[in-house]
Amino acid sequence: MNNLNDFRSQVNLYFDKGLDMQAEQQMMDQVDSDPKLNQVFNKEKNLRNLIKCNFQRTCVSPELIQNIKKQISIH
């Protein structure tokens, strides 16, 4: 079970662009060779696509951005 949790962590890093090219390739080789890992990978991929496509980000006003920048520069 720990190996599966480790793999899930790797998948999250993969989608968050946190892996180097060699680690990405190793993980994708694992995904291609193990149906269970392939299922975990695809489930995460589908979930991220669902969130990306079905939830809109709220727009932030330029005034709010300027306010935040001012507050940062003061401190």
Task: Describe the fold and architecture.
The protein has 75 residues and is mostly helical. It has one domain (2-74). The protein is built from four helices and no strands.
Give the SSE layout.
Blueprint: H1 2-15, H2 21-33, H3 35-54, H4 62-74
Helix pairs in contact: 1-3, 2-3
Descriptive labels:
single chain, 75 residues, mainly alpha, 4 helices, 0% strand, elongated
Got a strand count? 0
Which percent range describes the beta-strand content? under 5%
Radius of gyration: 19 Å
Mean pLDDT: 92
Structural class comes to mainly alpha
Helix count, DSSP H or I runs of 4 or more residues: 4
Please describe the biggest sheet, giving its number of strands, its sense, and whether it closes into a barrel: none
Morphology call: elongated
Helix content: over 70%
Brief sketch in words of this structure:
With 75 residues, the chain is mainly alpha-helical.
